[in-house]
Fold these 2 entries.
Entry 1:
Amino acid sequence: MSKYSVSVVLIVFLILNIIGCSKNLDTQTPPKVKPITLKNSPTPKNDGISKTKISAVTLTSYPASIAAVVNKTYYMPIDYIPKDLVYPNVPFLFNEKIEKRKMRSEAAKALERLFAAAKKDGISLSGVSAYRSYATQKVLFNNYVKRDGYEKARTYSAIPGTSEHQTGLGIDVSGSSGKCAAASCFAKTKEATWLSKHSAEYGFIVRYPKGKESITGYKYEPWHIRYVGNISNPIKSRGITLEEYLHVYSVSNKIISDPLNY
Ligand SMILES: [Zn+2]
């Protein structure tokens, strides 16, 4: 190798080093979030779920926590199934002992106390839908997508993994007649008024309050109550949402990711 060639090699080496150093100095640039591929999921095989690719999703840190935040930003792990699901001893609009009748045991006991207190006040409540597994939400959401298209479906139905019903701590409640069950006209019923006034006394909050859509990502749902335990009272008295209480990200209606690649 000639002297000239050695010099060229040295210069190239130096230039490469300088570029490398300047990259190292640029520490302010946030790292790119790599897509997460969930593998080896313990969910049943051949349901397509274990192959689901998730991009830039924040997984809820403590899915089994009573205060777990699940929304359009914070996703439940696909394979999370609460270990303590039971059937609360309260009436539902249906008789079958099926998945959507279940809740986690602590929430179920609190719900029994809430329903009993409502009855004392002359309010007859019924459960509409409580626990919903990831797999069930996926079937539901896929059906809505087939009917209305993805963009419309996600305005009224949760993308699988973002439904609070997967926690086993949320339940949709109606009057025992089932009138306006999980519909906006429920807001005008005496049952909705009672729930909004008294839920916090039993550890529940109305999870999607009026005027908080930019934070919760959902329009007012007076029928959807969520068990949060003893933080229900400060949340209610301060007129805030679970997101605000826990100082986590608020969501916008804009989906930050498209986990199921629709
Ligand atoms: Zn609900």
Entry 2:
Amino acid sequence: MEYVTLKNGVKMPKLGYGVYQTPPEETEKCVLEAIQTGYRSIDTAQAYGNEEGVGNTLAKCGLPREEFFITTKVWISNAGYEKAKASIEESLKKLKTDYIDLLLIHQPFGDYYGTYRAMEEAYEEGKVRAIGVSNFYPDRYLDIEHFSKIKPAVNQVETHVFWQQKEAKKYMKKYGTQIMSWGPFAEGKNDYFNNPVLKEIGGKYGKSVAQVALRFLLQSDVVVIPKSVHKNRMEENFNVFDFELTAEDMAKIEGLDGGESLFFSHYDPETVEWFMTMA
Ligand SMILES: NC(=O)c1ccc[n+]([C@@H]2O[C@H](COP(=O)([O-])OP(=O)(O)OC[C@H]3O[C@@H](n4cnc5c(N)ncnc54)[C@H](OP(=O)(O)O)[C@@H]3O)[C@@H](O)[C@H]2O)c1
């Protein structure tokens, strides 16, 4: 496994396993298969309803806790200092652990500064090894970067070949915040797995579209957490450290960037109103 070192010195695997939309009843099985495949970094969230499944697997798998890097996120409905503080305790309980490796604010809505204060406190108490944010577009990212005591170590944002986050990355790089991709395959949107450019490049190395896409992100210094409930795909997605894309391959893939979300924009008032319904 390759690692990045976060701004506070904590090492984080460059490749992990995501469990968004993994049904709670399948989570234990899936996470165990991911661990058997070799994944040691698992990305969950309060909102996914499967922290318990992740925790059960960690407890049962027989490997020491220190081998793992566990990320979870505080949801909008837990925004604000008091609620966030209680929710962090709840996450620790569900994950069956006395520390979380990386804790993120899931969405930049509601009293997320209150949330961040609770996270800073948990960090100082040793309950969390690193804190950060998710879905913070450059404006909100810069705001929290400047007005926080403990600076965000990570910003997890939609990042894939069709939205490479070139602008946002500039600012994260400037302040040493690690970019982490959610949706590295854009959940298959845009006929992702049949993309002719990725297919052609993969052909040269005997690699699949998924593997080329992940490799592109890794070589662009992006941490990735692809999700799959299928063991063969978990293996495929893990097997990306034995080849290297050339500068020419990278340039071709850079050409796929459309510069905008394939899901929704956090700048769009309708999207914001939709998120408000979840608060
Ligand atoms: N912070 C946030 O707001 C946020 C938002 C979204 C996601 N995330 C995190 O990021 C992780 C990854 O994103 P995501 O789950 O949204 O989407 P994703 O990883 O881009 O795509 C997952 C989809 O691709 C399929 N797939 C996976 N590997 C494949 C392969 N090798 N070949 C063909 N199909 C493949 C999966 O199907 P099967 O499962 O059927 O194999 C699933 O439908 C999440 O699990 C979650 O941890 C965070």
